Amino acid sequence: SRMSRRRADSHGSLGPDDEVVPYSDDETDDELEPSIDEQPEGLPSVSQLSGKVNWYLNWQVKANDRSFCKQPQFQKKFFLCFKRCKYAGNAIRTYKYNVITFLPLNLYEQFKRAANLYFLALLILQIIPEITTLPWYTTLVPLVLVLGITAIKDLVDDLVSVTCLFQECRWMQIQVGDVVRLKKNDFIPADILLLSSSNPNSLCYVETAELDGETNLKFKMGLKVTHERLQEESQLQSFDALIECEEPNNRLDKFTGNMLWGRERFPLDLDNMLLRGCKVRNTDECHGLVIYAGSDTKIMRNGGKTRFKRTKIDYLMNYMVYTIFVLLILVCAGLAIGHTYWYQDVGSRAWYLYDGLNQTASYRGFLSFWGYIIVLNTMVPISLYVSLVDAHFKFINWDLQMYYSEKDTPAKARTTTLNEQLGQIEYIFSDKTGTLTQNIMAFKKCSIAGRVYGDPNNPDGSPMGHDKRPVDFSSNIFAEKKFQFYDHHLISCIQSKKDKDVLEFFKLLSLCHTVMVEQREDDLVYQAASPDEGALVTAARNFGFVFLSRTQDTITISEMGTETTYEMLALLDFNSDRKRMSIILRFPDGKIRLYCKGADTVIYERLSPNSKYKDVTQEALDVFANETLRTLCLCYKDISRADFDAWSRKYKEASIAMRNREEALDEVYEQIEKDLLLIGATAIEDKLQDGVPETIAKLAKADIKIWVLTGDKKETAENIGFSCLTIHSSQSNSRRNEPLGKPKKIKERFFPEGGKNALIITGGWLNEILYEKKKKRRRLRLRRLGKKPSPTSPQDSQPMNDHEKELRQQDFVDMACECGAVICCRVTPKQKANVVNLVKKYKKAITLSIGDGANDVNMIKTADIGVGISGQEGMQAVMSSDYAFAQFRYLQRLLLVHGRWSYIRMCKFLRYFFYKNFSFTLVHFWYSFFSGYSSQVAYEDWFITLYNVCYSSLPVLLVGLLDQDVNDKLSLMFPKLYLPGQQGTLFNYKNFFISLFHGIFTSLIIFFIPYGAFLQTMGQDGEAPSDYQSFAVVTASSLIITVNLQISLDTSYWTFVNCFAVLGSMAIYFGIMFDIHSAGIHVIFPSAFKFTGVASNALRQPYLWLTIILTVGISLLPVICIQFLCKTIWPSVGDELQRNRRKFERQAEEPPKEKPTFQRGARSRRSAYAFSHSRGYADLISTGRSIRQKPRARRDAPESIKEAPQAENI
């Protein structure tokens, strides 16, 4: 009989099970099977289904037959009348474009930008002769340049997404129906039905960290029939079973199917399936049949769709373009009306203006409207520069401070369009396992018989000085080389063998567990159900108590070099209700002893009144808990032979009980696990990645809220929350039990003191609060049966309609946002994405998701910014991310340095770009009052063409690439500098209208000062320089000098390149202008270059140079005064830092002071290992299924012969 069991159900529970990962929530009609009590009428009952295909098992797979899936009945429509196979290939598509769709899709995405669409319409207008006032190339050249550069950039981004590992390329060849062989440490390439393995009973151990974030191993098992008949390659080759199973879905916790083989039907469930993304462990070889491939696999179904991400500034730019377009329409309409009246009063009567066209004034006004649309087109900014400034992504790739040398992994920006969004993040959603932690458990301290060990001490027990050296375990041939311990006093106590409690302590650790052991190249390799248990057995191994082997009934250890075998009488495995495990052993001398380890909350209740060390161990537990270590109590009990025999009879009766077996076993376990004697306690450190607490603390100072979303257990997640400072001892953990979503007349806070609460919620409760799926599943079933669903009553705490559902969701988000820390545990990949979506929806916040596993892909795709950690859980998160690096601590540099700089640069760039375009364009508006509103341009055509491309682009591009208000060290030292990006204060409608009025003011000065200077003017040579062409040259020259000096005033970080750009832009302007105005080019192209000799004639007049200087001075003087007053009277945080930059830089160079980890007087809490420990391998051990079997000759053995397995040590 078995000495272990499954977890008992919690009777009377009013809520969901906190330990269970809830179902996914996006099932369809086809994915929902009827339960027993909801079976459709007319369908066969469960008993009648024997020998028939279940009505919901629509997916059929034939082993070793690829052509089976290509039959006509398995074809589905995908576009119009075109069909393709419904079975997906195993190639995973992480890119957006292919050869056919690149051009149309990319152009569609680009023309979503209103500016590009506007310029396309403008180009069409310029082709019409009666309307056009500018040559067509003035619009075509910038537009083609924009579209071409952006398309190339998008193509490069997409090619980065296509890059994959060589291993994944080989996966592409796998198809549904293939029989595949996997070896140890292989990633599973598809959802595969396990057929056989090299382990006994076709067991296969898998690591599921990419699916649920848990690092402990799970075991899968092949069917008995496939285990016995599919071991040889020839048998696998002739395997021809037909699999009938459910359609592909995203439920990681469910699989239902049948295998039809040799006229027999065998049931299949999730225990027989190896899911894509898992890793084969402790199994030399296994064979399986591919059931789902590629996008049909469960992990890919949880991955979500690839989304086109755009920044908040990009969306705001679109609305600003609409605003400019409305202003443009109004201005052009006003000027068209002016031209209509002017032509009636003046134009029609002036004989020298007669053009031979008998057009009415209204029609001429109509043509003038479209003419001004073309003339004033540069009011609408084209998006070329927004694309080019995004070259900042290269600085992220080149940042050596984000380079992880241990794995030769640099930071990688996998997108070029989201950099400024990094400076506006308000919420970070982080995975736990592999993102915050290293997936490494370390034995740090222990309390034995009232004494605490683990601090750096000498062999005599005195504290060690500054020279902290670890214990030398080289004398122990079994010692784990990576294990480090600094208390030399403990090892001296063990070696002296004088302290019996110390020896009993480590003997318990080496015996009381469910660890499996494997001999590999003269080394022992332990495989534990949880990393905690592995750390404890490894610690005992280093201290001289080495677990060597086990069979179904015995366990063998080496005690200080002496090998001893104990008979295992019973193994009472761990579960989340018991929070403890026990083992009953018969010693070689016949003594029977029970060893027990578990959470202090359950161990202390079961201690004998005569047990020693209770109080001192309790104090030690408090100290361990305050140091965020995971604690565990160890105890034992001697049992007489008569007592054990009596208890064993009760156990056997309970184990065969037909009703309430779990409760009966619980009661029997309670009878033996009492009157225990306490030995001590252990303290394990769940190692965080380097710099995680400091990073989280720094991001919190920047007012960035961090939520932890993990598939791991609640207690583990809570413990990590304390370790990485997302939860503080001063915070209280909150769970809200009253229904959410009731309408409130007044918006009131959920907690009177905001930020002093921490919300820890499990996936089951998240489903209850957010009304995920239970009612939907029932509605779908009833709809399928043709019945009307019964109305939901208010008493069942489910919302009556979508409005109430939205109220409940909004209340949850509001409540969570009031908390200082939020941890969601036992959540599915879909739930992670839903939580991110809720915050985006109800808080309108910019979000960032960071993770390292395939279970984080959906969350990464849903957030505005997705960050992948290239860690221990594969590359799927990195492949789906926007940015990737190796360590969580690099996130602070990504946001507080690169993100903030990118946001400031982009905002400064856009404000200046609007300003310089308004200054340039509105000169035409003032000129129209003196040209009869006739759509006449104020500048030369080639100046209009080259203004944004050559004359004013380089300085602003360099500001957008290189500018910084403070350096990187001060950016990290003062996280408050990040706040303007979150608040959007540097670029909004207020800044837009300031740029508009600044441009209006500059255009007024640039037009009217030269206009006044040209009135009644005589040059030195007696000629009047007041002609139109000379006026155009003076206004253009004044404009170029003004806008280039204006960007100089806005530049915070000067380099040689910036100086060269400003002076070079002005030099390029004058150089090109003199070339264009030369006689030589006029002779070659007389119709295109009409300003012959104008520049040389006008600019030789000192009077005009004085006019240019006066115009530039008056334009810039108010700006200089306003900047001086703002920085003096109303300085920002950045202004104050710049003023005292040297002082703060010296402070940044000083090494930070270390803060003590343990604070006296802090409120104690439990970080118990037993709460987070997983169910062990007691089932496999006690039944003998995991014991290695001697090889059997199968080549000629008939299938009917049964061979008796012979057990031997692992």
UniProtKB/TrEMBL annotation:
Q: Transmembrane segments in this chain: where? A: 319-343, 363-386, 909-930, 942-962, 992-1016, 1028-1047, 1059-1085, 1105-1126
Query: Where in the numbering of this chain does the P-type ATPase C-terminal domain appear?
Result: 878-1132
Q: Where in the cell is it found?
A: Membrane
Q: Where's the active site on this chain?
A: 431
Region annotated Disordered, chain positions: 1-44, 782-805, 1143-1210
Gene Ontology cellular component annotations, sorted alphabetically: plasma membrane; trans-Golgi network
Pfam families, per the entry: Cation_ATPase, PhoLip_ATPase_C, PhoLip_ATPase_N
Example of a GO biological process term: phospholipid translocation
Q: How does it sit in the membrane?
A: Multi-pass membrane protein
Annotated Acidic residues bias: 16-40
Any GO molecular function: magnesium ion binding
User: Know the name of this protein?
Assistant: Phospholipid-transporting ATPase
Q: What is the lineage of its organism?
A: Eukaryota, Metazoa, Chordata, Craniata, Vertebrata
